[in-house]
Inverse folding.
């Protein structure tokens, strides 16, 4: 059975997206997308912990935060002004 699912995933990107989902943008340029946060069943506290773990002290310092397919949150800090 696993072999069949693996074969179906490798032959169809649409099927892969259906099973695995797509990464979701949680924050863009300091703005939190609350609807995406709720839909992904994350709390603000969980998001803020990921932001702090990435070295940002506030959401205003975040260019983007992405909920990956594996459940991890990738945080992209805003570039520092030169």
């Amino acid at each position: 059975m696993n072999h069949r699912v693996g074969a179906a995933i490798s032959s169809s990107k649409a099927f892969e997206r259906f099973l695995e989902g797509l990464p979701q943008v949680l924050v863009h340029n300091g703005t939190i997308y609350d609807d995406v946060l709720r839909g992904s069943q994350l709390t603000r506290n969980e998001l803020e912990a990921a932001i702090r773990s990435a070295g940002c002290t506030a959401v205003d310092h975040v260019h983007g935060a992405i909920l990956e397919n594996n459940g991890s949150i990738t945080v992209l800090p805003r570039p520092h002004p030169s």
